[in-house]
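Category: protein sequence paired with discrete backbone structure
Discipline: computational structural biology
Format: plain text, a pair of labelled lines
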Amino acid sequence: MEALNRLLTQIRARRHKAKATLSEEAYRQILQRTAGVASSTEIRALGKAKAVLAEFDRLHIAAPAGKRRQLTAIQKKMWSCWQQLADAGMIVDRSMRGLRAWIKTSYGADDLQFLTWPQEANAIERMKRWLARGDDDGDKIGGHDG
């Protein structure tokens, strides 16, 4: 019972952490599909709780610290370009959060993993041109409070 409660706590914590990106409907669909329940309070078996967490992992939903998704080679290149822009003082937020914000603004994608290959290539070329110009058009981007 203690092990089940631990897993249920993990499910609820990850759901809470992902609240901004995971709709209530999508969360309920995951519960129904993986555990056959409409609410985490209905989960009574370890296997069902593990199935929900495995689905969260598969979908990269609020992965716990230490379980970050590895960047692909092209995503590493985007990260490198972003860091070069930060080193040149052309962006305010050099973090992954800043890069994601720029990707969202520029391409409408919530994360690097949702970009198509042409969008990834375009993002890299845009950052390279931006760096080569050496200007920020009087407007630093990527700044966030928090």
In short: The chain has two domains: 2-58, 73-133. Residues 73-133 form one domain. The first helix runs from residue 2 to 17. The mean pLDDT is 85.
